Here is the input.
Amino acid sequence: MKKMANRLVPAILAMAMVLATGTVGLAGHHGTHKEKKTGILLVAFGSSETSAQVSFENIDRKVKAAWPDVPVYWAYTSRIIRHKLAKQGKHLDSPAMALARMADEQFTHVAVQSLHTIAGAEYHDVRRVVGAFKSMGVFDKIILGHPLLATQTAMEKAVDALFEMIPAERKKQEAVVFMGHGTHHPANAFYPALMFQAQQRDPLVFIGAVEGYPEIDEIHSWLAEKKIKTAWLLPFMSVAGDHAKNDMAGDEDDSWKSILMGAGIQCHTVLKGTAEYDSFVHIWLSHLKEVLVHFNGS
Ligand code: CO
Here is the structure.
């Protein structure tokens, strides 16, 4: 027994040394001491409308200009839109697919920036995916940035940006009606919260929602109460896509334009998404900046 142990000791030591050197040698290879590599993942709901691409291109340009050394990736949360685009030969990742790709490309620090307007269902889906990647430990750090409407500072900046969207031709006695998307999610409250703050500055500015509160019927009754003769309709969505073109400015009977015109209110429509305006893009970028400062020195 003793004899065997004596003979085994050198063998074990040799094996341990091989393993140890092997391990040391592999450290660089397998990335135990991975070099810091920071990446940005921009996550939007998505749009299949070609005209909506100007919004995304504007954001993409601004992000790349602000952080020229950081690679920028994109993901769309809407599966329907991703599949629609795939049929046109355009590939877009889901947030999970994009993060898996970034993990494979050895990113260590990932800033995920939501390009959503509110922290609704889509945002919380992204949050769950980010949480899953965080618990897998594939990145040293992964942080999700706030959507457009979040802190009070962002709300105030959003009010400023809303007023910058209003065409100069709009007269003081004319109403301005923004069409937000709206949601069944509790975060829908951000729309009336923003409207309240906008109305402190101009009581004829309204923010409605196509799939939430306040609905066009409420907006209409408020306009009637104030005896409004003319209204400007603008989308309060990052892209002027299907909702803006059809539900807001379309000629169908149930579009906001038709409903208000039917009530004797003259309508002017503007088809430009919030992401086409720098003042809004700056708010998203300020949230992304907050995430990226967390990566300094870590
Ligand atoms: Co919708």
About this structure: Residues 1-5, 9-28 have pLDDT under 50 and may be disordered.
